[in-house]
Every structure is written in C-alpha cells, then in structure tokens.
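Reading group handout, session on sequence-to-structure problems. Before we discuss, look at one worked example. The prompt was deliberately terse, the way you'd type it at a terminal:

> structure DUF1707 domain-containing protein

The input record follows.
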Amino acid sequence: MSEVPSPQLRISDQDRESALAALGEHMSVGRIDIDEFGERSARITAAKTRGELSEVFVDLPEPHPGYDVPKPAVSKPASPWAGISSTQRVMGALLPLLFIATIVFIIGTGASWWLIAIPIGISVAGEGLWGKGWENAHKKLGKQRRRELDG
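And the output record:
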C-alpha cells in the first residue's frame, strides 16, 4: 500500500492486522504453506517496528501491509470572544438583562417611564467607549476562520 519511510518507526495493532491479512492472501494463493504462515504470523505478532514487519514480506510480491498514516494536527479554531475584553463580555451579557429588568420593574411598580433611560445611557456609553471595535473584531475573526477552512 504505502512505502516504509523509516524502519525504526513503531507499528500499531492496525499495522499488524494489515500484515496478517496480507500474509493470509499469500497463503490463499499458494505462495506460502500453513507452517510458513504460522512462523511468519508469529513474527508479525512479535514485531515492534516497521523494519521488522517488512522483513516478513521481503521475499513476497504485493500485497504488503499498509501502515497508519499520521494525520496532521488540526488547529483549534479561535474563540468567538477572542480579542474582546472581559468588561465588554460582561456588558454584552448583562445589558439585555438590564433592559428586561427595567421594563419589568416599570410595569410591576408603576414607576416612571424615564427609568428606561438607565440601560439606554449604559448602551450609549458602551458604544462610546468601545466604538466599532466589537463589530470589527467579529468581522476579522470571521475572515480568519474562512481562510483557515479554505486553506
């Protein structure tokens, strides 16, 4: 299946199973007999490296065992909150709750409607403090994720 890049690399159980399956094919077509199959399968079972496993097949044509190909590590995507301060996170979570609590308070107690100015004032102050930084951070993160997925 695949070339042996380094005979010193250790093999997995799946590599041994692949080798036993390939050896079984050689026996089924008559290249080796049952005694030789037993001897070679014992060597496969005891093999620790790719080199030891390859020695079992040195005098046999294809099929040879395939090896596990290591998969490249997948980078963890950046958090959706990356680049946003903890103060902004807290304000982003609490502000909608403050609006709801204020409306419930006004309706429940018959308080003056002008109390709604408190969460509105906090919203305006937050926009003034952080400006478009919040929105720009999300746009930048979205572009970065698309590049990672495409590339």
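Points for discussion. First: The chain has two domains: 1-71, 86-150. Second: Residues 77 and 110 are 48 Å apart (CA to CA).
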